[in-house]
Amino acid sequence: MLRGFYTVASGMIAQQRYQEALSNNIANANTPGYKADRATFRAFPEMLMHEINAKQLPVKHGMKVPTNRPIGSLNTGVYIQEYVPYFNQGDIRETGIDTDLALIQENVPDENGSFFFAVQNEAGDIRLTRNGNFTVDGEGYLVTTKGYYVLDNNQNRIFTDGLDFTVTPDGQIETDTQVSQLDIRYVADAHILEKEGNDLYVGPTDAIPAHAAYHIQQGFLEESNVNALQTMTQMIEAYRMFETNQRVLKAYDESMGKAVNDIGRIG
C-alpha cells in the first residue's frame, strides 16, 4: 500500500515538471530562434515479484519443499530524466530590418547537427545562439537584444558604426570601411549543449564538415520551432494524467483510512 503512494506521487511530480517545460515552450513561442524542450521520462528500477510457498510431498513424514514462483515485475514509479532541446529549423520570417539575420541550414550531415552564431556574454565567454534578432549598440557594435557582442571569425567584436551594412549569404558583413566574417560554429550533436538562458547555449563545438552548408539571409528571422497547437494538446494530456494520478492517490488514502479506522478497530 505505501509503495503505491510513492508510485502515484512520482507520477504526479513527473507530470508537473512536464507541464512546466511545456509552459516554458509556449511562453517562448514567439522568441526568434528558440528551440523547444522535450522531456524524457524514465522509470525507476522495476522489482521482480515472487510467490514464496512450500509444497507438501506425499511421503510418510510429510516433507515440505520450498517453492519460488515468479509473479511478474512491479514498477516503482517514473521521473523526468532530462530536458532535450529539439533543434529542428524554425520557419523563416521576413522582417525587412537589416540587423535581423537568419541562419539557414542547407545541408547538415549529422542527424543532430546544427549551426550557431557565436556571441560573447557579459563575462567575456563565448556562447552559442540561434537567435539572429540583432541590433547595433551605442558604440557601433553588433549585439544581441540582451547586449551580447556578436563575434567575427577572429573572435573579435563586430564594429558596424551604424545600421548601414550588408551581409552576404556566406556571412560577410560589409561596411564602407571594413569587411568582417561572422563566426558561425557547428555542433555535430547539439543535444549535448546546455541552455544558459537568454537564448544562449554552452558546450563544445566541432569543425564544420566539408560538405555541410548554410547561408545567412539579411532582413529575415528564424522563428521559434514550437508548435503551439501541439504543445497545448500536450499540456491538456499532462493535466489529465496528473488528475488521474490524483484520483488514484485519493483511492489509496481512502483504503488506508479504512484499514486503520475500520479493520484496525475490529481487531
Automatic annotation (TrEMBL):
Residues 217-261 form the Flagellar basal-body/hook protein C-terminal domain. Keywords: Bacterial flagellum, Cell projection, Cilium, Flagellum. Pfam families: Flg_bb_rod, Flg_bbr_C, LlgE_F_G_D1. Its main location: other. Residues 5-35 form the Flagellar basal body rod protein N-terminal domain. Coiled coil: none annotated. GO terms for biological process: bacterial-type flagellum-dependent swarming motility. Residues 112-174 form the Flagellar hook protein FlgE/F/G-like D1 domain. It is found in: Bacterial flagellum basal body. One of its GO terms (cellular component) is bacterial-type flagellum basal body. The keyword Ubl conjugation does not apply. The keyword Zinc-finger does not apply. InterPro entries: Flag_bb_rod_N, Flagellar_basal_body_rod_CS, Flagellar_FlgE/F/G, Flg_bb/hook_C_dom, FlgE/F/G-like, LlgE_F_G-like_D1. Belongs to the flagella basal body rod proteins family. PANTHER family: FLAGELLAR BASAL-BODY ROD PROTEIN FLGG (PTHR30435:SF19), FLAGELLAR PROTEIN (PTHR30435). This is Flagellar hook-basal body complex protein FlhO. It comes from Cerasibacillus quisquiliarum.
